[in-house]
Amino acid sequence: MSVQRPFQQLASRATAQSCVQRSQHSFQGLRIPQQQSRCLASVAPPVTQNATGSKGPTAMVFMNMGGPATTDEVGGFLSRLFADADLIPLGPLQNYLGPLISRRRTPKIKKQYAGIGGGSPIRKWSEYQAAEMCKILDKTNPETAPHKPYVAFRYANPLTEETYNKLLEDGFGKGRGGRAVAFTQYPQYSCSTTGSSLNELWKWRQRLESPTRNPDLSAAEAEGSIQWSVIDRWPTHPGLVEAFAENITKTLETYPEDVRDNVVLLFSAHSLPMSVVNRGDPYPSEVAATVWAVQQRLGFRNPYRLVWQSQVGPSAWLGAQTSDTVTNFVKKGQKDLVLIPIAFTSDHIETLFEIDQEVIHEADQLGAEGRVRRAESLNGSPTFIKALADLAGAHLHGGEVCSRQMGLRCPGCTSERCLEQKRFFTGLGQQKNKALTL
Ligand code: FES
């Protein structure tokens, strides 16, 4: 279920009168009072619009955590990562502990990036996936074409701030309106990942486009700000499931036929601190939903487990840990194991180094004889890129602002930033609507 808004209205040049008329619109039955809703009707068509009848151009912004492209970028990447309390909550000492931990970890992590070729491939894959998806959308959704690909990373270049400024340079916002879709590249929602990216996007939107935060903006510029919608989760999209199933099947085919159905599938996702899980974060259940859907597609031919990797520090994290699980299985004689990265859409340090060079290497040292393998990441999979286009096309066509689920905060959330971000992206402005943002 989604929060809907007729996007045909977004690009329509409007008068103050039409703003009043439309201000009593409803979201899934919720009436949004005029002074509390975003006044969508006041947005002028973007000046860059170049096709009669088209509501484009449309910016498609891929959000992800990013990774250092070179070893020189590792320090900055880690310092941003450990400063983010949404991702790594370090309590009141975050500003002291964050820099300390990132400085101490930098030499070790630099070596890891050197070991996978000198940098993360996530930018290369993200830019490729976004560009290829936009090519498909230009054909399938001509009414919102041209679709322009952007990437906004939380901890590495291009950072959200840089991408937001690029959007403004490219003719979106600043009095010209225009539509942008924040498309999370984390299929399963976590407040640590998608939530953090949206908090950052909202922060820069306020700094660059809100008249209350940016007094240099003219009234016209403030009126014609970028109109955002969000694809905030897609854990069981059939195209995503199919892309995972294809890669798993290819890996299973590398095993002899007589053992193939006895290979244990280990779906591996990045772990979370238990403090985040116990706050009510939706990620564990959404990752489990992906795993179940993939297994259903594969006919439950193989036994499987969902396991969790990349735990940092001494506090309690969600388990069982991927590395321990592999070690235990191999020691017990179950050597045929396929590891499947299930919560990322391209290769990154956790697949190329942690799984390939640590977990699988250690398994071989215990006698796994090359029988612990990894399914390829989604990377340039045409099935996956088609799935992205299918998702985005339905979003653009359907007038979805975000999923219905996005308005609900974690039961244990006390963050004002989460609250304000959700009010903004769900289109509820300052409305104190308890039904959506408890
Ligand atoms: Fe989940 Fe704030 S921590 S909504």
From TrEMBL:
Pathway listed: Porphyrin-containing compound metabolism; protoheme biosynthesis; protoheme from protoporphyrin-IX: step 1/1
Domain of life of the source: Eukaryota
InterPro entries for the chain: Ferrochelatase (IPR001015), Ferrochelatase_AS (IPR019772), Ferrochelatase_C (IPR033644), Ferrochelatase_N (IPR033659)
Entry GO terms, CC: mitochondrial inner membrane
Record Pfam families: Ferrochelatase
Keyword Chloroplast carried by entry: no
Membrane topology: Peripheral membrane protein
Compartments where located: Mitochondrion inner membrane
Keywords: Heme biosynthesis, Iron, Lyase, Membrane, Mitochondrion, Mitochondrion inner membrane, Porphyrin biosynthesis, Transit peptide
One function term, GO molecular function aspect: ferrochelatase activity
Catalysis performed (reactions): heme b + 2 H(+) = protoporphyrin IX + Fe(2+)
One GO term (biological process): heme biosynthetic process
Top enzyme category: lyase
HAMAP family named among the record's database cross-references: Ferrochelatase
Task performed by this protein: Catalyzes the ferrous insertion into protoporphyrin IX.
Family the UniProt entry places it in: Belongs to the ferrochelatase family.
Name of this protein: Ferrochelatase
Upper taxonomic lineage: Eukaryota, Fungi, Dikarya, Ascomycota, Pezizomycotina
